[in-house]
Amino acid sequence: MVKGISRQVIVVQSPDPKLFEQAIFILKNEAVGQGVTDEMLLKEAKRALRMPVMDSRRRKFYGFGPVWACGGAMLTAFVWLLSVLF
User: Fold this and answer.
1) How far apart (Å, rounded) are the C-alpha atoms in residues 40 and 50?
2) Across the 86 residues of the chain, what is the mean pLDDT of every consecutive 10-residue run?
3) Concatenated DSSP letters for 19-39?
4) In 3D, which of 56, 21, 27 has the Cα closest to residue 40?
């Protein structure tokens, strides 16, 4: 058990309690003293709950491989053509 630490939290009840009962948000110490109202904090917490979860890895675009392969093949054909003609 950690002693001597006091944190403020927001608890938001889940609209669909099949998997989760509630979400707990821990507030930053700076957020409390900046004139942020309770309504603003609750609105931000509900907005965070609606955001889709992003994968930690970025999605890769696999179309670049074939483009570079075709470009390399065309460059190789061009150099080969120049070497045959001259």
Assistant:
1) 16
2) 72 80 83 77 82 64 82 95 89
3) T-SEEEEEPPHHHHTTT--HH
4) 27
